[in-house]
Amino acid sequence: MSEVYAVRRTRLRECCNAGGSAAALVSRPANVRYLAGAVPEDTVLLLGPAEDLLVCAAPLDDRFPQARPDEVLRVHVVPGDGGDPAALAAGLAAAQGADSLAVEEHHLTVARHRALGSAAPRLRLADVGTAVEQLRVVKDEEEISCLRIGAEIADQALGELLESILVGRTERHLALELERRLVDHGADGPAFATSVATGPNSGRPGHRPTDRRVEEGDFLSVCLGAAYRGYRCAIGRTFVIGTAPADWQIELYDLVFTAQRAGRESLVPGAACRDVDRAARQVLDGAGYAEALPAVTGHGVGLEIDEDPRMTPAAMGKLDACVPVTVEPGVHLPGRGGVRIDDTLVVRPEADGGPELLTITTKELLAL
Amino acid sequence: MSEVYAVRRTRLRECCNAGGSAAALVSRPANVRYLAGAVPEDTVLLLGPAEDLLVCAAPLDDRFPQARPDEVLRVHVVPGDGGDPAALAAGLAAAQGADSLAVEEHHLTVARHRALGSAAPRLRLADVGTAVEQLRVVKDEEEISCLRIGAEIADQALGELLESILVGRTERHLALELERRLVDHGADGPAFATSVATGPNSGRPGHRPTDRRVEEGDFLSVCLGAAYRGYRCAIGRTFVIGTAPADWQIELYDLVFTAQRAGRESLVPGAACRDVDRAARQVLDGAGYAEALPAVTGHGVGLEIDEDPRMTPAAMGKLDACVPVTVEPGVHLPGRGGVRIDDTLVVRPEADGGPELLTITTKELLAL
C-alpha cells in the first residue's frame, strides 16, 4: 500500500505546487486516511517541502490497534494533553523551510486556523480547497474491491433478515439486528446509521428507526451498508408485509423501480451527473410525484458514504469510469408511506459490460 | 420546555451584549439543542436583535419525526439544495438591523465563516467563544433526571449481559448485544461507541471492540452509556472470567478501585478539577503506574459525552453543584491487560448527601 499512498501524495503535491504552495496540511479524516492509511481521527498529514509526516494527538501505541499508517511516514506526537496536531504540523512545515502552507479551509475551524497561524506566524496560509476529495472520486481496483466486499456483506445481512419473522418487531430492533449481522459477516461496522422504515414511515430518505412495529400490509423500506477497510456502500430495498400487495403499492413500486433502472442505465463514462439525476427523476415527475422527491437521487461513495459526485438537477460535472455511485430514487407520500430502491454501482465503459452492480439483492417486489 | 429555552437564550444574549454583539449565531449541534430543542444536525439558531429564529437546511416535515424545536421560534428554510443555513442566518441578522454577529469560531469552518461574511458583508463578525458550552456545565434537575434515566438503562443492559454466557463470544458481539439492550430499555441509542475489551485489551481507554473472544482467566472491561432525550452518561466496569481471579488481577483491581473511590469522594462543590484528578491519580502513581495512566481521569457529561469540566493534572477551574461528571481512572499494562472503573455522578453539597451516584452497578470484583 505504501506505494499507492506515495503516488496519491505526489498528485496532491503537484496540485499544491501549481497553486503556489510548497507545503500542504491535510486534516479531514477521510482525506488523511486516503493519503496516509488508517490513523486515529485527530491525526493530520503534512506534505512538507523536505518530508511528509503524520502528527498525532497521542502516541500510536496499542490504544489504536486499528491504526495502519503508511510506514514510510515519520510520526510526531503532540506533547502534553489537548494540543492541536495541526498547530504542531504548521511549526514543522516552517522548520522545513516552507513559506506557505495550503490548508483545508472547508474542514479547519476558524479557531484552529488562527491557532495554526500563531504557531507559525511567518507561514502564509492558503487554501487547498477540495483537492483531496477530487482525487478520491475515481477509485482504483483495490478500493473498488473493498466496496464490492462491503456490498456482499450488506446483501448477506439483508438476505438473512428477510428469512426471519418480521411482523410485530420494531424498526429499531430490525435496524440493530441488521447491524449485528453486518459485523457477523466481517464488516468494520455499519457504513451509516441503518434505516428501517415501516408503514407510513416507509420510503422516507434517512428515516431514523422508531418503536413502530411491522404490521401486515405495510411497506417496509430498509437502507443499510457495510464499512469494509474504511470503504462504505449502500443498499436500499422496499418490501411488502403479508401475502399480497395492494394495487397502489404495486403501482408505486413499479414506478420507483422504473425510475431507478433509468438512473442505473444512464451510468456511462462521460454522462453528465444532472442527466443521470434527470433520467430517474423524470419518471417520477411524469407520474405527478415532483413534490415527493428528495433533492438528490444518487451520490458517490468511498471512504465516506456521501462523496462527490452528487446527482441533482443542478449538478455540474460528468461521470468518469471507476466512479462508484448510488442510484436511489424514492417516493414518500405523507401519511401513507412509500418506496425507495438504492443500489451501489461502479461506472464502467460499455466495452467492459457497462455499470457494475455491487448490491445484488433482488429488486422484485417481495411479499414477506 | 419553551420557558427553559427562553431563559437559556436570555443568559446567552446577556453574555453577547456584554461582549458588544447585538446578535449571535449558534451552530454547534449540542449548543443549538440546548437553546432551541431537538432539531436536525445542520440547523442553526440566530439570536437576533428583534427575534430569535431557527434556520434549517430542509423543511422540518415528517422526515424528522424526532425534531422537537422550541415552538415559539420561527423556522426559516434554506431554499434549494446544499445552501448553508449559517449564511442565510447572517443575512437575517443583518435584516433585523444587527451590525455585529458573534459566531462560534471553534465550530464554524474557515470556508463557512467566509461564506457567512459574503452573505452579510456589512456585518462585523465576532467570536462568541465557548459561551454556550459554559452555560451547559451546570445542569438543572430536568437535565439530571434524563441522565439518571440513561444511567438506569445502562445499568440494566450491563446487568443482563452479566447473566449470559460470555466465554467464547467476541468483543464485537458483546458490544452489539449491549447496544441492542440499551435500545430495548428505552435509550435513544448508545451514548458513544460501546467498548468491550478482553484479556490483553482490557483496561484500554476507548478500546474499539475486535474479534478477540472472551477466554477463561481474562479481565473483561466494558464501557457503555445510554443516550436518553439527548443526554449521555457512561458506566465502566471490569470483571474476571472464570472461578477465581489471579493474585495480580486482585491487586490491580483493588488499586484502581481505591483510586476511583478517592476520585469520587473528592467531588464536592468548590473542589478544583485538578485536585479531583490528583486524588485518583496519586493512588496509581504511588503504586508505580504513572506511565500506564490516561491523560484524563474524568470529565463532564450532558448533551455530549465529553464536556467541560475535564479532570487533568493541568485543569483550571472548580466544580459547582449540579455538575455531572465521570470518574474513570484505569491502568492498562501492555500485553497483560488492565482495569477501568467508570461512574457518572452529580456533584452535590454534603448537606444534600454528597455526590449522587447515577450508575449503581456493583464495583465488587465479580468473577463471571
Automatic annotation (TrEMBL), chains A, B:
Chain intervals for the UniProt region annotation (Disordered): 192-212
Keywords linked to the UniProt accession: Aminopeptidase, Hydrolase, Protease
One GO molecular-function entry: aminopeptidase activity
UniProt cross-references to InterPro entries, sorted A to Z: Creatin/AminoP/Spt16_N (IPR029149), Creatinase/aminopeptidase-like (IPR036005), Creatinase_N (IPR000587), Pept_M24 (IPR000994), Peptidase_M24B (IPR050659)
Ranges where the Peptidase M24 domain occurs: 146-348
Domain Creatinase N-terminal: 8-138
This protein's name: Aminopeptidase P family protein
EC number: 3.4.11.9
Enzyme class: hydrolase
Domain of life the protein comes from: Bacteria
